[in-house]
Design brief:
32% of the residues lie in helices and 0% in strands. The protein is elongated and about 90 Å long. The protein is built from 1 helix and no strands. By secondary structure, it is mostly helical. Keywords: Membrane, Transmembrane, Transmembrane helix. It comes from Streptomyces clavifer. This is Secreted protein.
């Protein structure tokens, strides 16, 4: 008769569950991004005159007002 070792007490039958360290890492990563977003939102734009999309006021209204120097070498 052949003897085989069965699964010991250390063996896990569920393979789809990530290890707890991965959950902790993802939680800390999410907290880091949330904190960075909150600080960035509190500080505001990084340059004077920088506005988000949809903000009008100092922006050109016609294509003739836009500078055409794009650095393309033309």
């Amino acid at each position: 008769m052949e003897q085989t070792a069965g699964p010991g007490p250390q063996a896990k039958s569920v393979r789809g569950v990530p290890p707890p360290a991965l959950w902790v890492f993802l939680l800390l990563l999410g907290a880091l991004f949330a904190g960075a977003y909150a600080v960035g939102n509190a500080v505001g734009p990084v340059a004077p005159g920088m506005h988000g999309p949809g903000v009008t006021g100092g922006t050109p209204t016609e294509d003739g007002d836009l500078p055409m120097e794009h650095g393309g070498g033309h």
